[in-house]
Design brief:
Elements: E1 12-15, E2 22-30, H1 34-41, E3 53-60, E4 67-76, E5 87-94, H2 96-108, E6 112-113, H3 118-125, H4 131-142, H5 146-156, H6 159-183, H7 194-212, H8 215-223, E7 225-231, H9 237-245, E8 263-269, E9 272-278, H10 289-304, E10 307-313, H11 327-330, E11 335-340, H12 347-358, E12 367-370, H13 376-390, H14 393-398, H15 405-427, H16 431-449, H17 455-462
Parallel strand pairs: 1-6, 7-9, 7-10, 10-11, 11-12
Antiparallel strand pairs: 1-2, 2-5, 3-4, 4-5, 8-9
Helix pairs in contact: 4-5, 5-8, 6-7, 6-16, 7-15, 15-16
Length: about 475
């Protein structure tokens, strides 16, 4: 673990804004000696500063007394800052050279360079954030769409933590009464009924299961929707990708097999990030080794994508067979069928295509969208249907969602142990066995909240943060 011990009593500093040139940069200083350090580089800093007040002045090199920059010094008293420690944020001109000189000046008078995530780590250690909220900070920083930012913000504001703490409280009550029953068993006293314990634990398990069911939607919002375009060569996959993106990203040619590698590009649709993967066309026979490699990659992408758009060329009725796809790949996948080049065919072809789809037993419920790469309505229809297929819009907008794999793992373990405890109660097993299961269930929730943690958990959470946060 890169934190802890004497390190936690040091005063740390780092640039908290992105590297490069800009109007301003912000340098954060946090720790017990923040005031003393600032006075050594800014002599006009008051002896008794006022929290949340900004002071203007020249920051000077402590060795040469040369002015480095005219800065704004924002002061936050202990207990009133992000970290919970005395903090000063220095707003300087946005030059990497100036930032570097200021950092060197601060370090020369007693500060230490901050490590990745160290400010948020200190906020956690000072009980300004629990571990779920700390991860929400990272998710918010890394959010790449409006929906993912909203999800991360709800997590940072404690929406998920509140639900988990409520479950933890109920389970603690149950465990306390079970352990009390062990202590008082020789005196024949009953602290609660078996029925009440089972009801409370069943409610806890149901609440956890409800949260677990939100993981798929939460993960997709956080990471973005991975959508693969697959089909035979020359059915219009690349043209379709260009239509969806609104610009020419993939090469379009009448020659079959133009796309050899996976072409990845993303867009934001109604606040949701969608990553499109244009793949090499699949055909049963080819002598081209490079094309074979491309087809292998297509099958891998198909297997891993959240949703697959299987593209057909309506203008080629003799080439509609599904023999290019392994049936085992289709089972359980989210599929949309794109009947492409619909502007080139007659109503009879439309009818013929729908009859063909009805004969495909592997795709009984697949939605069919008729498209043309020259029609903006096709673009909207496809994008809307992608989001409708993968996301629960109401839940995405209004509910607290699970989005982190660590949380998902913890809740699964907790749910399994609660289920085991309920079974033990119903079977009339000893209170000691029930107590063991509930302790394991509680430990999983406490790991999730950060009430119980070890070096491995802390490294896992904070190693992803950038320096300065």
């Amino acid at each position: 673990m890169i934190y802890g011990g004497d390190r936690d009593r040091s005063t740390i500093c780092a640039v908290s804004t992105p590297s490069g040139f800009g109007g301003i940069s912000v340098i954060r200083l946090s720790g017990i000696n923040s005031e003393n350090i600032i006075r050594k580089v800014f002599s006009q800093f008051p002896k008794i500063p006022e929290s949340h007040k900004i002071y203007l002045g020249h920051l000077k090199d402590p060795l040469t007394t040369e002015s480095i920059d005219q800065c704004l010094f924002s002061y936050f008293a202990e207990g009133k800052s992000y970290t919970g420690e005395t903090t000063v944020e220095i707003s300087c001109h946005g030059s990497p050279t100036i930032c570097d000189r200021i950092l060197k000046a601060l370090i020369s008078v007693g500060a230490q360079a901050a490590r990745p995530g160290e400010f948020t780590y200190r906020a956690f250690m000072n009980n300004n954030l629990d571990l779920i909220q700390a991860e929400g900070v990272l998710n918010l920083i890394e959010s790449r769409s409006q929906k993912s930012a909203q999800l991360a913000f709800r997590q940072l504001m404690g929406g998920l933590s509140e639900k988990i703490e409520k479950i933890e409280s109920e389970m603690t009550w149950c465990l306390a009464h079970i352990e009390a029953s062990i202590d008082f068993s020789t005196e024949g006293l009953e602290t609660t009924t078996q029925e009440e314990l089972i009801n409370k634990l069943s409610t806890c398990e149901n609440d956890i299961q409800k949260i677990l069911k939100t993981y798929q939607t939460g993960r997709l919002i956080k990471d973005g929707l991975q959508v693969a375009l697959v089909g035979k060569p020359n059915v219009g996959k690349s043209s379709l990708l260009n239509l969806l993106l609104g610009y020419d990203r993939s090469i379009v040619s009448q020659q079959a097999g133009t796309t050899r590698d996976v072409v990845s590009e993303e867009l934001i649709h109604k606040g949701q990030r969608i990553v499109f993967l244009d793949t090499a066309g699949i055909r049963l026979k080819t002598a081209d080794d490079i094309e074979l490699i491309g087809m292998k990659k297509t099958k891998e992408v198909f297997q891993n994508a959240d949703l697959c758009l299987i593209v057909f060329d309506l203008n080629q009725p003799l080439d509609w067979s599904m023999d290019f796809l392994d049936p085992d790949l289709i089972i359980g996948k989210n599929i949309l069928l794109i009947a492409n080049k619909s502007d080139l065919v007659t109503p009879e072809i439309f009818e013929k295509f729908m009859k063909f789809i009805q004969t495909q037993n592997l795709l009984p419920d697949a939605q069919v969208i008729f498209s043309t790469t020259f029609d903006s309505h096709s673009k909207e229809s496809i994008l809307n249907q992608i989001c409708k297929t993968l996301l629960d819009d109401e839940a995405a907008e209004n509910e607290v969602l699970l989005a982190n794999a660590r949380h998902f793992e913890n809740l699964k373990v907790s749910s399994a142990n609660i289920s085991s405890a309920i079974a033990a109660l119903k079977a009339g097993d000893g209170a000691e066995l029930v107590s063991l299961d509930l302790k394991e269930a509680l430990i999983s929730l406490q790991d999730m909240l950060g009430k119980r943690f070890d070096d491995q958990i802390m490294d896992r959470v904070f190693k992803e943060f950038c320096i300065g946060k």
